[in-house]
Give the backbone structure.
Amino acid sequence: MQLHYREMGAGSPLVILHGLFGTADNWQTLARRWSERQRVILVDLRNHGRSPHTPEHTYELMSQDVLELFDSLKLTDVTLLGHSMGGKVAMRFALDHPEKLERLVVMDIAPRLSDMRHQDEILAGLNAVNLSTLQSRQEADDALARYIPQVGVRQFLLKNLYRRDDNSFAWRQNLTALTTNMSQIGAEIMDDQPFMKPTLFIRGGKSDYISPEDKLYGIPQLFPNSQVETIPDAGHWVHAEAPDRVFELVDAFARQSEPI
């Protein structure tokens, strides 16, 4: 699979993987800042953004997709960053292909099994938008609002809505595949061999995606050369809520061979 990507800057590569229902575009602002110091590659994962749609959506397949991108761009000594679902892809890739990476950054997700029931209302809202009759973005927002009261979440989701050449609306994400494979998206990341290179986990203090038990047991078991940094006032979308602190943490981490 040939994933869609964008790149900017020059130097040592930083590859960024977005989360569920996201796209590479979500990371543009931070990417531009990092690109003043290094090469930054923003990736659309399968069934998201402008990358191909397929019925399958597993971490094993997404790890293979990322490997194909690395090989096509001849990437080595990479800092790989992933948020949420993208963080699980990044963990899977690091365990599968440690030789490709210099270091790993995982944002607000742990390797353990994730309870995906909190996505039910989002899926219901997205599936309630009738694309065949949709006339405006406001109409789509009204349909989402019946299931998703948070304006910010609806705005994030509506970034995936676009007009085709015939002026009809469509979603950039493969909603059918994501709905069908939601249990796969929550799957645990496991391996017999740990990833031994420097790893930084960044969590939001208002988020429960990384628990105290994850910090003590789950994360060190697979990533023994890791540390967890907490941004107290941020939730799950750490990079959107505390961009300056995320910039500083990742920039410092990407510039040294030892964990910060």
